[in-house]
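== Folding the chain ==

***
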Amino acid sequence: MSDQPVNDEEQWRRYLDEAAKLAAASDAPHGPNPRVGCVVLDRHGQVVGRGYHRGAGTAHAEVMALQEAGERASGGTAIVTLEPCAHVGRTGPCTKALLLAGVRRVLYGQAEPSNRGGAAELRSGGVDVIGPFPDGHWQKLNTEWTHFQCTGRPFVTLKMAMSLDGRVGLPGNRPLRITGEAARVWTHRLRAQVGAVLIGSGTAVADDPLLTVRDAFGQAMAKQPLRVVIGERHLPDDLALMHQPGDWVHRQDRDLSAALAWLAARDVWHVLVEGGPTLATALLADGLVDRLAWFIAPQVVGAGPVTLPEQLPVTHLQVSEVQQIGEDVLVIAEPLHPDERPALLGSQ
């Protein structure tokens, strides 16, 4: 057999795909650590180890794969979705583990967004390092975590639901059940992936939501995101969200940037906003929304509060996904950077 059988970029990408599938396992973390997968090949190009990170304090993906590979990793190749770390945290640096195992080559998909990546250290140790490969789906494994590392601000997903005519409630601000059961299940899956759920004090009082992650039988799951209410309005002591598993907090101000900074200091790097029109408008106006999850229900209400009641500057979006969830339509979109926005059409 050839001593260097894996030299083709198409092969490398296939192994990166396999590592990405490992990283996306159902028990892989959604915070505060990134999701990472690793595949180790022996010197003949045969897979001898696989691993993925299972959460803070557990072995990193590279270490798990190397443990499975054992001595067969010597002279081989490690393919990992994220640039191996070179820092000491709850566990040791992955660069040291790779060097001690005698790995000769490392390929990685995404560059470490901070200054703690270990590619330079591996090269200085005689390892052939190849990467990043920026145009693979491994780049999307840790979109929210990467945003947090680069900006210091939590990634904000704004979820809204409206009727076909743009209504979010009935006249007199009476609550309206807009989306169906399938959309509710989808929302609970999303809640399970975030560190905090944020609503305004007006929504807390008017809708009295639980804001918990619940299973198909309506039972609260063991792990819950932090429930955050923002706004100066007084909250009655009998609100449902106050008496659910997990923690909650009321920030009695309207400073959204300060609230996000407060959450960032607590290692919350993905926030789901399920507030009403006032909070949604304020976040969009301040440029604090990173992704929109917009449900459109097949009903016409005719009257009542609208989705975005205040005038906003034009916001250009890039639609990344449109799908039907039960009877409802879900649109996923991200605001475009100013440099990416198309020019507004003028008179012809």
Remarks:
- The chain has two domains: 9-141, 150-340.
- DSSP finds nine helices and 13 strands in the chain.
- Residues 27 and 301 are 41 Å apart (CA to CA).
